Amino acid sequence: MRADIIDGKAFAASLRRRIAAAVPGFVAKAGRAPGLAVVLVGEDPASAVYVRSKGKATREAGMESIEHRLPATARQEELLDLIESLNRDEHVDGILVQLPLPPHMDEAAVIAAISPAKDVDGFHVVNAGRLAVGQPGFVPCTPLGCIMLLKDRLGDLSGLEAVVIGRSNIVGKPMAQLLLAENCTVTIAHSRTRDLAGVVRRADIVVAAVGRPEMVKGDWLKPGATVIDVGINRVAGEAGKSRLVGDVDFAEAEAVAGAITPVPGGVGPMTIAVLLRNTLVAAHRRSGFAAPA
Ligand code: NDP
Q: Where do the annotations place NADP(+) binding (predicted)?
């Protein structure tokens, strides 16, 4: 038996089409397009690529992309002042500060400065708290994308055993909260977990968000499990080239799992699509309109 491939790229493309189709309705009511402000501090090449692709996707969805760049030497006060002006700007519905920030800046303080109503990344403690207590807020894009893929594949997740490997604030913890809200029995594993393979073997759903290339092996999986691989790891490939792999050994897992996301083309494309979705929702909420489903 070969696992079905969960095509995150196709799902993300259809989500982006649905968002683009909903934008003109907002524009007709609000008299303006939803706006997403992205702030990049410094010259990190990977961050610059992410910011460019977020801007392009925002414009393709018919929304306004507002990009701000500060030098790596900028003082934290300058960044906080910029965030404050974006908080006040009526045309800005979502604010995203591209991480990581230069080492002299306090990431937690910067995230705390973003208005929770515009925190489309869902990183603000108010939004993390809302997720934990089941109130509507903003959920981090990557785990929300994972839950969309899982529900599309499995339908009702109620009662399923889910194991999330990784407990970061941006992926592992919100992922566990989302699975709990779907009535899964959730285990969060991390670097101190004993007998990780044994823990993973119980799972109907495995979400790997570790950052270790191909760590999860085929014989760790329960046959038929649904595997969501969040990891993005660059490793040496053939002829001196590099290639991307996930946290799951895909070739091994494919022979055991019921369904699996590939890397690339699985979770990755969902992140930007969900960012656009969160921005559209923020725009509706701020204007007092019912948010689209
Ligand atoms: P972090 O480094 O913040 O967290 C990694 C987690 O993995 C930690 O909780 C850590 O445990 C745990 N861990 C580390 N080693 C082991 C181990 N040997 N066994 C079990 N658990 C372990 O990473 P992120 O959550 O930010 O990202 C995880 C991966 O997802 C990365 O590859 C990243 O590139 C990718 N990613 C992909 C995105 C996408 O769009 N597809 C978006 C965001 C991230 P502990 O807490 O004990 O240290």
A: 166-168, 232
Q: Which pTM value belongs to this model?
A: 0.98
CA distance 73 to 267: 33
**Sequential pLDDT tens for the chain (293 residues):** 799 999 999 999 999 999 999 999 999 999 999 999 999 999 999 999 999 999 999 999 999 999 999 999 999 999 999 999 999 999 999 999 999 999 999 999 999 999 999 999 999 999 999 999 999 999 999 999 999 999 999 999 999 999 999 999 999 999 999 999 999 999 999 999 999 999 999 999 999 999 999 999 999 999 999 999 999 999 999 999 999 999 999 999 999 999 999 999 999 999 999 999 999 999 999 999 998 87
Is residue 233 in contact with ligand 1, taking CB distance under 6 Å?
yes
Residue 148 neighbours by CB under 8 Å, 6+ apart:
11, 15, 270, 274
Helices 268-287/45-60 angle, 10° precision: 60
Assess contact for 150 and 205: CB atoms under 8 A.
yes
Residue whose CA is at the smallest distance from ligand 1 atom 15: 191
Contact in structure between 283 and 95 (CB atoms under 8 Å): no
Domains of the chain as residue ranges with CATH: 30-115 (3.40.50.10860), 141-269 (3.40.50.720)
What is the atom index within ligand 1 of the atom nearest the CA of 271? 40
Q: Which residues are annotated as a binding site?
A: 166-168, 232
The CA-to-CA distance between both ends of the chain, in Å, stands at 36
